[in-house]
Amino acid sequence: MSAPTPFRASARAAFSLGLETTLASRRAWLTGLLLGLPAVLALAYRAAALAGVELHLPGWQVYGDFAVTLYWVGLALPLVALLQASGYAEEVEARTIVYLLTRPASRGALLVGRFAAYAVFALGVTLVAQLVTFLLLGTQDGTGAFFGRVPGLLRDAGVLALALLSYGALFTLLGVLLRRPLLPGLGFLFGWELLANLPGYLPRLTVARHLRGLLPYSPPMEGLFGLFTPLPVSGLACLLSLALVIAGGLGLAGFVFSRREYVLPQ
């Protein structure tokens, strides 16, 4: 029996294979469309402004309240993370994962490498779209206001990365636990995560509340949720909670993935 490949080399090989597989899949196109939509809408907004159309929302509010907070953090990044996690279940269902596990590498390294490939691809698309959106909407008030908002661009990029990693870690755990994680994942996003809009301490059990606690934006809430004002959470508490979600989700996912049996169909 050959000696197992070192963890770093195994993770690097899994990263390369995962990135190549991701770029060649239809899931990559769907990810690009989901994450790049705000840039397209920002271009349409700027074109309408240049054409003299009366716009009721300033560009900076569209960027912060709607593109960053409501769309990327609240919808697109969680959905992309769920799509990525469903890939594990698809490989288990098709038994193609068995051939990957025949290699002399630790399963933990394979999981880390595949997760890193997903994170690099999705974050790269998100940051490009964020920069384009920021340039189109942040310059509407002049260059002086634009340069004053550049530190906010870096802060927002960090929060987007945390959203991608947090939901990615949770849904990776869901993907290795369940054969069909899509419906439970959607139930989590559009059920449990909506508790972030309620008052009291219950929202602190959601990922969304800690991500929004790192952002200065206050998007308008419609309906019943507009009546509530959630309790504030300190930035340090938000960072520690998200770090715990990322480490705990990936750690448990690696534990389950390392001990589960995957067999070829008879």
Strand content: under 5%
Give the averaged pLDDT, no decimals: 82
Number of domains: 1
The termini sit apart by 25 Å
Total DSSP helices: 10
What features would you describe in this structure?
The protein has helices spanning 7-23, 26-50, 59-94, 97-101, 107-138, 143-148, 150-177, 182-190, 207-212, 235-259. Helix content is 71%, strand content 0%. It is globular, with a radius of gyration of 20 Å. Helix 7 (150-177) packs parallel to helix 10 (235-259). The chain has one domain. It starts with 6 loop residues before the first helix and ends in a 7-residue tail after the last helix.
Give the structure's gist in a few sentences.
With 266 residues, the chain is mainly α. It contains ten helices and no strands.
Question: SSE layout and pairings?
Answer:
Elements (H helix, E strand, L loop, with lengths): L6 H17 L2 H25 L8 H36 L2 H5 L5 H32 L4 H6 L1 H28 L4 H9 L16 H6 L22 H25 L7
Helix pairs in contact: 1-5, 2-3, 2-5, 3-5, 3-7, 3-8, 5-7, 5-10, 7-10
Which key terms come to mind for this protein?
266 residues, mainly alpha, 10 helices, 71% helix
